[in-house]
Design brief:
single chain; mainly beta; 2 domains; three-stranded antiparallel β-sheet; 2 helices; 8% helix
Length: 189
Amino acid sequence: MSREAMTVVYWTKPEKRRDAEGTWADTGGQVATRVHVSRDAESCVCGPAIPSDATIVAVTADWHELTTCYNCAYRLWPDHAPPGYVRPCNSQDFPPRRECPHEPGNGRDPTSCRTCTPSPGLVSVDPALVAGETADREPAETLPRWTIPTPYAVARCGTCGLPISAGELISIEYQAGVVHARCPSDTSS
């Protein structure tokens, strides 16, 4: 992996909001862009040209500690991955996390290691979640739901689509997948 110095940069752009008619209107304010990475200080790794009034954050080989642009990190990772870090999986996964210390050099996420992140174990099944008449249900609907604290960093409920926060009780269903333990749109309980 190459450890060449990269230019870390951001700039501001006009803030726009959608008006009542559905068109984008300039609010008169400025909003900062994500923090991008550039190899040549002319264009970002993710594509856009760097404007002349851009702010240079740093010129460093440790670009991964400063960037917030997922596209820049994604494109640089194969050839310029920092040793000892896990590749970000989405735009909220910044700054990059350290890899699992039990398998150094593999870029393994510590959340997938049983030693770093022990399994929370199963919590008893809430009878209210599986109660109800079973004669008129499909066989898949009669399967028990396992209720556990969510091990996922970012997840969405398969029933209502709302985000599930870390540590929140979830149910793993046969057809719906991961859902809130007490989903507001769940009609089975």
